[in-house]
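thread: overnight batch results

M.L. [08:02]
morning all. the overnight job finished for the chain we discussed friday. pasting input first so we're all looking at the same thing
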Amino acid sequence: MSTIRSVVLGSGGYLPEKILTNAELARLVDTSDEWIRQRTGIHERRIAADGEFTSDLGLKAAQAALDNAGLTPADIDLIVLATATPDNTFPAAAVAIQRKLGMQHGVAYDVHAVCSGFLFALTTVDAMIRAGQAKRALVIGAETFSRILDWTDRKTCVLFGDGAGAVVVSAESQPGWRSDRGVLSAHLRSDGRFQDLLYVDGGPSGTGTVGHLRMEGREVFKHAVGVVSGVIDEAFAATGFTAADIDWFVPHQANIRIIDATARKLGIPIEKVIRTVDRHGNTSAASVPLALWEAQRDGRIKRGDLLLLEALGGGFTWGAVLLRW
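M.L. [08:03]
and the structure it wrote out:
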């Protein structure tokens, strides 16, 4: 029996030109290149230029994804942008991207689940496609976290960077088998009890200010591997796949220790793990689509490969998606 799947037709990404190295950060706060590398695996990150907004980054990633798919904005009827750093409180930054693409049709809106945002956006788009509400969509993750960092706090300012990634997905009829292309299974979770471990201390309703990112890094690490591994186990149970079936593990690029610990716990060889955190830092909702873009561009990810995507973000929110490219 055939079924409708959300099949990826192309990917794209964009990184701002400015590179901020660990050595440069060491001149701003009490830290060092060695300290940052040992604890996070990060060597450098990108910083958006003055006047370069989240929608600008998302636009460039979206255009690259459309080019990669051989499509134009006229072929798209849905844009979902995952971001925790929109241009304005409202309207949604997705609407700004829609306007900049020259689109006067379709639907555009934002999804806010912080670092898990791209998985939440992809799952939302998949549900709309399977319900017949959309045919082709841009799913974007874009962030300018540099705008909400406290540059005197070495626990957080060394971790994050700016960037955007995107995929084009299309409704396609598939046989309904394990070998189908597209999103095969998606599992999302949240638990507000952990809010105080990773949050921003501002907001339009709470303080009337933007605020700064605050994090209890050790506590986040302690919970991250366990909850993410749990939701991945749910995805395996739902599909019958195991870690041995995975061609590429594409985790949220938060910290090399978390990435490697999760891979070890799942039994996924390190050579099957896509890692960009060393050059991108943690780009929040942009990290998974940026990793997809890079790995497709350099030829690692190929059509038919089975991918496991995962992420955890503030809230906590977390999730896992099994996707055949």
